[in-house]
Design brief:
With 373 residues, this protein is an alpha+beta fold. Strands 1-2-3-4-5-7-6 form a seven-stranded mixed β-sheet. The protein is built from 13 helices and 16 strands. Strand 9 (241-247) and strand 10 (253-259) form a beta hairpin. It starts with a helix and ends with a helix.
């Protein structure tokens, strides 16, 4: 996506706080409510960029700067021109209006007027959705004005559904005349009620290492080097993304998988437009619960959110259980990228698999399917 659209999405830097606020004010002034006076409360909400970053994350879309944007004071510290922004906050945040429980809330998605028509709003919304996944959020909620038909079409295209929230009073409304009628939307993230998938926490690194080794030793004979590589979770989590599947009721860790961060790869297999993943592991006592399937579907969803075309991965010839899972999900063999591997005294062919990434949002599975997976 980055090559086609010439922008990058990342977390805002502290020195960009004034520029993010200024961009948001300009974007809303050019929108369907730009003719209305801005209340002090609304202005304070937009200006609270640092607070939103501290209580969640503030994303920015950035491209290479040009002399004109520098003169206007809208360039970041690295010379990039800010094109858009979106904030994601947790339900306990003072900046949240709708979110409850484990939900995340998308707020103040704004695209600079001069950058509209380039897909920035969609890219920011998808990046925020990925960020919410890393938290293990159950859903993303948001609101948009009833006159903002462009945003409504965007969110509905991305799979959001209108809902009636528990609380409806906007945090930024000081009096009835300041109120703007809203449409409230919700997007389910966790596809199963019995599992929570999220990034590993620092205090879980050793547990994931032990789980992964157990998973691979259960079915395969491991060389010392491969066992050490499987257990080397800490640097992998620092450089890439290590995900866990946890039991929703008990918090027990059931499985893990590693994926690259946005814009990178985790193995030599992946090419441009592809996401690769490694070290899919399910703790032996959790087998039969569909944990491996859920983690594989996560990798496919990440690729969709990043605008990539395919998911690829390597697998050893002895990992027949994983091969059956990949076939069930629609993966095909990628024969032209398979290669011979020497591991100690063993020589074998490292298999490769691929699947095209769907363009439509994934849907939660019915409860009666989750237990049988």
């Amino acid at each position: 996506m980055a090559a086609a659209t010439a922008f990058t999405i990342r977390a805002a830097r502290p020195e960009e706080v004034p520029a993010v606020a200024e961009l948001t004010h300009r974007a809303f002034a050019a929108g369907p409510y730009g003719h209305l006076p801005v209340s002090p409360e609304r202005r304070a909400l937009v200006d609270a960029v640092a607070e939103r970053a501290a209580e969640g994350t503030v994303l920015v879309a950035v491209e290479a700067s040009d002399p004109e944007s520098d003169r206007e004071g809208r360039a970041d510290a690295a010379g990039g021109h800010l094109l858009g922004t979106a904030s994601l906050v947790r339900s306990a945040s003072s900046q949240a209006r709708l979110a409850v429980g484990e939900e995340a809330e998308l707020r103040l998605l704004a695209v600079a007027p001069e950058a509209r028509g380039r897909g920035l709003g969609e890219a920011l919304a998808l990046a925020a959705q990925e960020e919410a996944l890393t938290w293990g959020a159950s859903a993303v909620v948001l609101d948009t004005g009833t006159l903002n038909h462009t945003s409504q079409r965007l969110y509905e295209r991305l799979g959001y559904e209108a809902f009636s929230p528990v609380a409806t009073e906007p945090a930024d409304a000081a009096s009835p005349e300041d109120r703007i009628d809203h449409v409230d939307y919700r997007l389910q993230l966790q596809l199963r009620d019995d599992l929570v998938i999220r990034l590993v926490r620092d205090d879980e690194i050793d547990a994931v290492a032990a789980l992964s080794v157990r998973a691979y030793e259960y079915a395969y004979e491991l060389s010392d080097d491969y066992r050490a590589s499987i257990a080397d979770v800490a640097p992998r989590a620092l450089e890439h993304q290590v995900w866990v599947a946890a039991d929703a009721a008990t918090g027990e860790l059931l499985g893990s998988v590693a994926t690259p961060r946005r814009g990178s790869t985790i193995s030599p297999l992946a090419q441009s437009g592809e996401l690769d993943f490694r070290l899919l592991a399910v703790d032996p006592p959790a087998r039969g619960r569909g944990v491996g399937e859920a983690l594989t579907l996560l990798a496919i969803e990440l690729a969709r959110l990043r605008g990539l075309d395919r998911v690829v991965m390597n697998s050893g010839p002895q990992m027949t259980g994983a091969h059956r899972l990949y076939a069930k999900l629609g993966f095909d063999r990628l024969h032209d990228r398979e290669r011979e591997i020497v591991d100690g005294d063993r020589r074998f062919r490292l298999l490769a698999f691929t699947i095209d990434v769907p363009r439509t949002p994934r849907a939660p599975r019915p409860a009666d399917e989750t237990a049988a997976a």
